[in-house]
Design a protein that fits this description.
The protein has 288 residues and is of the alpha/beta class. The protein has one domain (8-263): Uracil-DNA Glycosylase, subunit E. The protein is built from twelve helices and seven strands. Strand 6 (191-195) and strand 7 (198-205) form a beta hairpin. Helix 2 (45-60) packs antiparallel against helix 5. The longest helix has 18 residues, at 143-160.
């Protein structure tokens, strides 16, 4: 197996709503990049699951990008909220948009088959996508959509605390590596990356949808997939150290004389839960 490289900060995962997004880390600071932030206080699996449900409820009412105008259902992700293994794909397709669950078509069946080959099931892992809403006509995600949605993925990683994240295809690989190098050059090469506040073993794989049409891609995906148990056996990488000095509260950072007009209203709005949309299919209630 290729040797893991030194931990690398992922600068691409920078929040768009920094006041709201920083709430789960214990750090309140405007404009601070997520990569390399200290690990948040240790929480139990049950506590993290409840927080993850809160992120899901927020995502259901999301209007951060134009995709909310055409989606049927927000596809947040599903599986084990305490999983050591997490998969991150590209975006929901038509079936996923209708059912509210990721990877439910032929690509999902292949994913299930590959999991079974290494002695695992969907209930052992967590599956999510770079985008939570389907792009019209299954087109590629646009940069502004990825930017608007990445905070949800970052918080999923923070709360699930996976040891290994398998990126499926180009979009998730480029996002989580903050690099433009394509999947054909990177697949099967594990490395340690810092995503949000957490160091993980990042493992790029071909997307199962691509493997459905090309036997050589399927063979490569299967070979790479069978190395996953070895990565899991290594355990989690060393986590980033917390800041030695405390970070002042936002109110302390903003001197009264320099406080921008309306900042108090901004703080209140940032802490207000996002609106919840209409009830979704019953399957969504048992996501994790």
């Amino acid at each position: 197996m290729p040797a893991a490289v030194r931990p690398t900060a992922v600068s691409l995962l920078t929040p768009h709503y920094p006041v709201r997004s920083l709430a789960n880390t214990g750090v309140v600071a405007l404009g601070r990049p997520w990569a390399g932030l200290p690990s948040p206080p240790v929480k139990s699996a049950a506590e993290r699951r409840e927080l993850l449900k809160g992120v899901y409820e927020e995502a259901r009412g999301c209007v951060r990008c134009p995709l909310h105008q055409t989606r049927t259902t927000v596809v947040f992700g599903n599986g084990n909220a305490n999983a050591d293994l997490m998969f991150v794909g590209e975006a929901p397709g038509a079936n996923e948009d209708r059912m509210g669950l990721p990877f439910v078509g032929q690509a999902g069946k292949l994913l299930d088959k590959l999991l079974a080959e290494i002695g695992m099931e969907r209930t052992d892992v967590f599956v999510a996508n770079t985008l939570k809403c389907r792009p019209p006509d299954n087109r590629d995600p646009h940069p502004n959509e990825i930017e608007a949605c990445q905070d949800y993925l970052r918080r999923q990683v923070d709360l699930i605390e996976p040891t290994v994240i398998c990126t499926l295809g180009n979009f998730s690989t480029k996002l989580l590596r903050a690099d433009s190098m394509g999947i054909s050059r990177l697949h099967g090469q594990a490395e340690i990356r810092v995503i949000g506040a957490r160091a993980v073993r990042l493992y790029p794989l071909y997307h199962p949808a691509a493997a459905l049409y090309t036997s050589s891609t399927l063979e490569a995906l299967r070979t790479d997939f069978h190395r996953i148990p070895e990565l899991l056996a290594l355990g989690p990488p060393e986590q980033p150290r917390a800041f030695e000095e405390s970070v002042p509260e936002l109110d302390e950072l903003l001197v009264e004389a320099e406080r921008p007009a309306g900042v108090d209203e901004l703080l209140v709005e940032a802490q207000r839960p996002a609106g919840v949309g209409e009830p979704e299919p019953a399957a969504q209630l048992g996501l994790f």
